UniProtKB/TrEMBL annotation:
Segments for region (Disordered): 210-237
Name listed for the protein in its UniProt record: Folate-biopterin transporter 4
Record-linked Gene3D superfamilies: MFS general substrate transporter like domains
Annotated source species: Anisodus tanguticus
NCBIfam families on file: fbt (TIGR00788)
Subcellular localization, as worded in the UniProt entry: Membrane
Domain of life: Eukaryota
Entry GO terms, CC: membrane
PANTHER family found in the cross-reference section: FOLATE-BIOPTERIN TRANSPORTER 1, CHLOROPLASTIC, FOLATE-BIOPTERIN TRANSPORTER 4-RELATED
Keywords: Membrane, Transmembrane, Transmembrane helix, Transport
Pfam families in alphabetical order: BT1
Assigned protein family: Belongs to the major facilitator superfamily. Folate-biopterin transporter (TC 2.A.71) family.
CDD domains: MFS_FBT (cd17484)
Main location: membrane
Length: 496
């Protein structure tokens, strides 16, 4: 393990490798502080389940517009640099809200102000996620392409390790620390991340505002459309989660980007503003032209519908588990650890046994599995588990352990299909768009869940209609199955 890390460090630089691990660890460790946020909304602000879910849905909206951050850093360099300045800005946006919430009792206990600061914090986290993703892609492409899979693997391992640590320590911290101390304690990580940004060197692009990949692909997209048969045939690049799109970009960077040469020639003596405008215009046009292809639009529409048609009642269940079942924060943190472990097992299981299956079949069985697990919530709410001699804790642990693993069977096809559908040259930005669609669908699903809870008058201390709400959720889980025709019939996760 240490030898592998030393190889990566010598290939990309120890400071860059440290920054990658730190950012992904922080992303996973966010469960530590967001557990405290959930209790802040419930116990201190006394919000109802629907109001609490509304606040968190608004706060997480910045994750739904990730392509904007990619286009911004691609097209508008700051002092000739496209990544480190934006990463520094993103880290500041991630750091300051936690410091403010830690020191200001008024802002921490006021609904609107708290929601704004949480939204700003997510803006910084989402931007940092996009920028570090772009930095990884560039490092692999220009330095050591043979380390692409290794660099992506260490990223995911760092995030999983951060998630496990955050879930374990989050419950313990809530039992022994005040919430303001938890906010301040978590701010150490973005502060360390801010310091690490200064250790990474980035060369100036000297006025080249237009990304080469976007430009080269722009000429490709203008000369013809995406060949749906090629994209969905059995011969596909090897998929390893997010690394797929990066590997594809490596194969296409050898081509001479004629579009960028023409653009730079015409703007050689022009102003930076003109270059930025042309760069933004080309990136936007290329992205729009790629996304409007039916081969891309239809599958992404399914994944969006799979979220928005199913009301998310997770916040309501959190209130039920903590208020009625009296489950401790430390126990819920342990349940989340099992969820992280289940997620990793689900990923390994998919890669080992399911990637040769047709995606339509996988997604159909996944929706059925999610429906069955939702029925487990109905068992918990009806107290049928107690009649069967099964404790609440065992029921919650079992559900948490299975739900994340089964949901991964839907997320892995999403990653695979997204990678397969990305045309050469705009993998990064288009993949960010795909992830944003998925995140936006989750956000809308949370809004739908909050609305359902409000209509059924489910509130703190009043869970009489929760069984009915979960029943509606179960029925809605089958709606996406009716739209599986949007997924290409022969699409699988098999790799060449």
């Amino acid at each position: 393990m240490m030898g592998w890390l030393k190889q990566l460090g010598s290939a990309f630089g120890a400071s860059f490798l440290w920054l990658v691990c730190l950012i992904y660890f922080t992303q996973g460790f966010r469960s530590f502080v967001w557990t405290a946020v959930s209790y802040q909304l419930k116990d201190n602000l006394k919000l109802s389940p629907s109001a609490s879910q509304f606040v968190t849905s608004i706060a997480f909206f910045p994750w739904s517009i990730k392509p904007l951050y990619g286009i911004l850093s691609d097209c508008f360099p700051i002092r000739g640099r496209k990544r480190v300045p934006y990463l520094t800005l993103a880290t500041l946006l991630s750091l300051l809200p936690w410091l403010i919430l830690g020191f200001s009792d008024f802002l921490r206990n006021t609904r609107t102000e708290l929601m704004i600061l949480l939204t700003v914090q997510n803006l910084g986290s989402a931007m940092a996620d996009v920028v570090i993703d772009a930095m990884i892609a560039e490092a692999v492409r220009f330095e050591r392409a043979s380390f692409a899979g290794d660099l992506q693997s260490i990223s995911w391992l760092s995030m999983a390790f951060g998630g496990i640590c955050g879930s374990l320590l989050g419950g313990y911290a809530l039992t022994n620390l005040q919430i303001d101390r938890i906010f301040l304690l978590f701010s150490v990580l973005p502060a360390l991340q801010l310091f690490s940004c200064g250790l990474v060197e980035e060369g100036s692009i000297q006025g080249k505002a237009l990304p080469e990949d976007s430009a080269s692909n722009g000429s490709d997209m203008m000369s013809g459309s995406i060949d749906e048969e090629d994209k969905l045939s059995g011969e596909k690049p090897k998929v390893s989660t997010l690394s797929l799109r990066r590997k594809k970009s490596q194969k296409n960077t050898k081509r001479v980007p004629t579009a960028i040469n023409k653009l730079q020639a015409s703007d050689k003596n022009g102003s930076s503003l003109s270059q930025w405008y042309q760069s933004l215009k080309m990136a936007t046009y290329t992205l729009f032209r790629a996304f409007r292809q039916p081969a891309i639009l239809r599958p992404m529409a399914w994944f969006f519908l799979a979220h928005v048609t199913v009301p998310n009642l997770s916040t309501v269940m959190f209130y039920y588990q903590t208020e009625l079942l009296k489950l401790e924060a430390s126990f819920l943190g342990t349940a989340r650890v099992l969820g992280w472990l289940s997620l990793m097992i689900g990923t390994l299981t998919y890669n080992r046994y399911l990637k040769k299956m047709r995606l339509r079949h996988i997604l159909m069985f996944t929706q059925i599995g999610i429906a069955l697990l939702t029925v487990l919530d109905m068992v918990l709410v009806s107290r049928a588990n107690v009649l069967l001699g099964i404790s609440d804790k065992v029921t919650v642990l079992f559900g948490s352990a299975l739900s994340d693993g089964i949901n991964q069977f839907k997320f892995m096809p999403f990653l695979i299909l997204s990678g397969q559908l990305c045309p050469p040259g705009v993998e990064g930005t288009l993949f960010a768009l795909f992830m944003s669609i998925n995140n936006l669908g989750s956000t809308v699903g949370s809004f739908v869940g909050a609305g359902l809870a409000s209509v059924l008058n489910i509130s703190s201390g009043s869970f009489d209609n929760l069984f009915l709400g979960i029943g509606i959720q179960v029925l809605c889980t089958f709606i996406p199955v009716a739209f599986l025709f949007l997924i290409p019939m022969d699409a699988t996760g098999i790799s060449a």
